[in-house]
């Protein structure tokens, strides 16, 4: 998906990496990434200063 999107939008760079929910949350917190994923809701301490958007509750395969 990322490669297809980037081929159609040459000025866009998308990097996809794996990890658990903590990796996604901590990567956003540290400024390493603009968007992180999590399979769970943020805790109150994790949510401080972040915006959470629930996009999909079903697994993507």
Please characterize this protein's 3D structure:
The protein is an all-alpha fold and 61 residues long. The protein has one domain (2-47). The protein has helices spanning 2-8, 21-30, 44-47. The longest helix has 10 residues, at 21-30. It is globular and about 40 Å long. The two termini are 12 Å apart. The model has no long low-confidence stretch (mean pLDDT 87).
**Helix count, DSSP H or I runs of 4 or more residues:** 3
Q: Which structural class do the helices and strands define?
A: mainly alpha
Number of strands: 0
Provide the domain count.
1
Query: Terminal Cα separation, in Å?
Result: 12 Å
Uncertain regions: pLDDT < 50 for 5+ in a row? Answer: none
Strand composition percent: under 5%
Order of helices and strands: HHH
Helix content: 25-40%
Shape: globular
**How confident overall, as mean pLDDT?**
87
Compute the CA-based radius of gyration: 13 Å
Largest sheet, described in full? none
Quaternary structure of the protein: single chain
What is this structure's SSE topology?
Layout: H1 2-8, H2 21-30, H3 44-47
Put the structure in a nutshell.
It is built from 3 helices and no strands.
Please supply descriptive tags for the structure shown above.
single chain, 61 residues, mainly alpha, 34% helix, 0% strand, globular
């Amino acid at each position: 998906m990322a490669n297809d999107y980037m081929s159609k939008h040459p000025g866009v760079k998308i990097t996809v990496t794996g990890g658990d929910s903590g990796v996604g949350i901590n990567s956003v917190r540290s400024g390493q990434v603009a968007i992180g994923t999590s399979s769970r809701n943020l805790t109150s301490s994790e949510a401080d200063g972040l915006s959470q958007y629930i996009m999909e509750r079903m697994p993507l395969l």
